[in-house]
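Escalated from tier 1: acetyl coenzyme *A holo job.
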Amino acid sequence: MASQKNVGILAMEIYFPPTCIQQEVLEAHDGASKGKYTIGLGQDCMGFCTEVEDVISMSLTTVTSLLEKYKIDPKQIGRLEVGSETVIDKSKSIKTFLMQIFEKCGNTDIEGVDSTNACYGGTAALFNCVNWVESSSWDGRYGLVVCTDSAVYAEGPARPTGGAATIAMLIGTDAPITFESKFRGSHMSHAYDFYKPNLASEYPVVDGKLSQTCYLMALDSCYKRYCNKYEKLEGKQFSMDDADYFVFHSPYNKLVQKSFARLMFNDFLRNASSVDESAKEKLAPFSTLTGDESYASRDLEKATQQVAKSQYDVKVQPTTLIPKQVGNMYTASLYAAFASLIHNKHSTLDNKRVIMFSYGSGLSATMFSLRLREGQHPFSLSNIANVMNVAEKLKSRNEFPPEKFVEIMKLMEHRYGAKDFVTSKDCSLLSPGTYYLTEVDSMYRRFYAKKAVDKTIGTENGTLANGH
Ligand code: ACO
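Tier 2 regenerated the structure:
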């Protein structure tokens, strides 16, 4: 039994590139029918890295910012776990690049490496950190979890479902965001729905339709297991009424809408109290469908979405801001949706239960729940919202025309796995304090620099290794 109390997330920071493309503009450029990306996929905008940013620079930026803004001494970190599916090196972990921040403060005593399985790696990293703090090997210091990805797809139907971001989460005791660790349901199996077998390319191989079905099947299975565990331990039925918010891994918003509706269908089949008489009537014609038939039924999809709409607006919509604006951030996607909830609702979240659904193709999935309370400054929900400053970060982005976006994608294809090049070092669009890639040398070693921070607020104009 863990003696540590209220283990969970103490602090969060998010970073996404200041460069993006409007989905409406991309839709027209790609020759897709009007509304396909915006209404059909439910996306507004997509963030992407230019040639000066990557998962390592974004992680350096995010971790540095979290430590500075919450005034955490780097020596207080005892475990650092990274979740990512963006492969830059087949051996050297992203975590070791981040050690540059800690080494210069004399702290090399930090456990943890990278976790990889598509979009699930961040959840694996988070569980590792939480388990460490709850374990007998915990030494009293903080854990730090970093979820970082650049999601890019080849030209074609999957391209508008890209995105890029990093989230860092500080883990410790007496947290405002705690884990209800006993209530977890997982589903893991072998599937070829989305994978990256071509090590010469950053792009995945995707069976789009299969990935949607795998996601929904995993959701059903995790929800059933979550409910079973809850019911065994609490001695009463779990229904959607027992949770205040539902946060989903968000490749694109339409799948999130379908997922919430699918949970309602599950509650209907379980005869749970959350489904009222009029909803029962509308869903009754589908009660005899087999599992496979239910995934294929467009009528069921429509009926459940209609029945779930009013609850979706209350329990899911506040979680959708960043995923709709930035796109799929792979490992960071679920946590960016959770960050959206904190951004939108931080003053009213005390004692709320949040259900989280993490999905990584291939496939690994877990449903788990969090319990929130306001907490004490600096580890309070309102301060987390303040530090993340999501509205300002979204507002200050630069929209690129599609031609420029395509040109950047081509350059990144060329640069992926390459050596012996210097970047433009153009950091004019980056905020002060942002790290950027300057060079990959003939030994494939990567070098980064940090954009100068205004001297009047007393911070450095730093470089890492031989950057600018
Ligand atoms: N106006 C409004 N809606 C439209 C329009 C239009 N003009 N045109 C199409 N639509 C709708 C479609 O009806 C469909 O809606 P539906 O899902 O409710 O049926 C939606 O837009 C998408 O259209 P499709 O034709 O189904 O899209 P397509 O097959 O071309 O691509 C897909 C979508 C499969 C999601 C693709 O973008 C992809 O492969 N993405 C990557 C894989 C992915 O994200 N999978 C999710 C889980 S795995 C993971 O997280 C990576």
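The mean pLDDT is 96.
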